[in-house]
Amino acid sequence: MPPTPITDSARRAGNRRDRGKVEAAILAEAVRLFAACGFEGTAIATVAERAGLSKQNLMYYFPTKEALYRRVLDDVLDDWLARMASLADAADGSSAPADLLRAYVRAKLAFSREQPLASRVYALEVIGGAKLYGETIRRRVVPLLRADIAVFERWIAQGRIAPVDATHLLFAVWAMTQSYADFAPQMALVLGRDALNQDDFDAAERTVTAMVLAALGLPPTANET
């Protein structure tokens, strides 16, 4: 039998898969370098070399260093916001505030555990004044923050939690959970080991959750005390 001809749609699908693999390799190396060296300290040629490409080949996918940097930050923010949105998306009145807040803290710590380098890239951008990415942060983060604040305000009005400044409580949760990515090397050094382990993240989840519940006048479980 003659070989089955390759259709145009199959060829396009194969091209998309190949492009996706190359982009993934570029982005993986870019995250490592931006996390270690920041935007200014990262050379596009170094990213290309680490990804096994020529500089010209890399620039076919990302024509400038800023385009590559923005793509890295877009991916970070997509993941971070997906976890952030869990609070407002699930707060339809059928779930207890304590359960939703436990899930929120767990999701934020999971991001720090799973994406420590990505978190550091984002942190470096913000610490530097968000000069390249500030407008995107305002456009994408502020609406979700307001949605989460509205959830707290509704709970307060219903008498389900103690009155609290929801904005600053959420800022505190972000700081506590993201520190397990951004300052993980310092934490590991103080603890006398090479890296944080699952037990450390479990302990962090219990502690942060207990602090948040206490601030809202909600009783912790026996495991969180």
Report on this model:
76% of the residues lie in helices and 0% in strands. It has two domains: 1-63, Arc Repressor Mutant, subunit A (Orthogonal Bundle), CATH 1.10.10.60; 70-224, Tetracycline Repressor, domain 2. With 225 residues, the chain is mainly alpha-helical. The protein is built from eleven helices and no strands.
- Write out the CATH superfamily name of the largest domain: Tetracycline Repressor, domain 2
Helix content: over 70%
**What is the N-to-C order of secondary-structure elements (H for helix, E for strand)?**
HHHHHHHHHHH
Individual helix count: 11
CATH class of the largest domain: Mainly Alpha
Count of individual domains: 2
Report the count of strand segments. Answer: 0
- Could you name the ranges where pLDDT drops below 50 across 5 or more consecutive residues? 8-14
Straight-line distance between termini? 71 Å
What is the name of the CATH topology of the largest domain? Tetracycline Repressor, domain 2
Second rung of CATH, namely the architecture of the largest domain = Orthogonal Bundle
Which structural category fits the helices and strands? mainly alpha
GO biological process, one term: negative regulation of DNA-templated transcription
Protein name: TetR family transcriptional regulator
Domain HTH tetR-type: 20-80
GO molecular function: DNA-binding transcription factor activity; transcription cis-regulatory region binding
Can you give me a brief rundown of this structure?
The chain is mainly alpha-helical and 225 residues long.
